[in-house]
Write a structure and sequence with these properties.
By secondary structure, this protein is mainly alpha-helical. The protein has helices spanning 23-33, 40-52, 60-73, 81-112, 115-142, and strands spanning 4-5, 16-17. Helices cover 68% and strands 3% of the residues.
């Protein structure tokens, strides 16, 4: 997994941090990223990619500081963070689709449980039964004996 949602007890908020980061590092990173605005997640994704590639030899927070400095200077270019973000979007889309399927299944189950639906099903079954009986009678009447 690319990172833990920071909405948990470890980090708070809605940024997604690398799994390898300790809660204290997440807190420090959040403070450092505060002025980065919309670029904060992109920078965190790059850090996650670097951590996964074993490209961070020291502290993740120190490496993050360097990424933020580049972002402030306008020289930050996301490289390893791009697949991290793409994978997160893919997981999020799959989760949303799963939730939508579950919601639709619950809606259908609730609909099938209504008396109106049950009455409609009974009426359709009776109609099919009547059609089957009519066909049997026609087939029997049309057969030479």
């Amino acid at each position: 997994m690319a990172g833990a949602v920071a909405g948990g007890a470890d980090c708070g908020g809605d940024l997604i941090f690398a799994d390898q980061m300790l809660p204290q590092e997440c807190a420090a990173a959040r403070m450092l990223l505060h002025p980065c605005g919309y670029q904060a997640q992109e920078i965190l994704d790059e850090l996650t990619g670097r951590l996964q590639a074993k490209g961070v030899r020291g502290s993740p927070v120190a490496y993050l500081r360097g990424l933020i400095t580049r972002a402030e200077a306008g020289t930050f270019i996301a490289e390893l963070g791009l697949p991290i973000a793409a994978e997160r979007r893919k997981r999020q889309l799959a989760a949303e689709q799963h939730s939508a399927r579950e919601a639709e299944e619950r809606r259908q189950a609730a609909l099938r449980a209504t008396p109106e639906y049950q009455a409609l099903v009974r009426a359709q079954r009776e109609k099919l039964s009547q059609l089957r009986d009519d066909m049997k009678q026609r087939m029997a009447a049309g057969r030479p004996r």
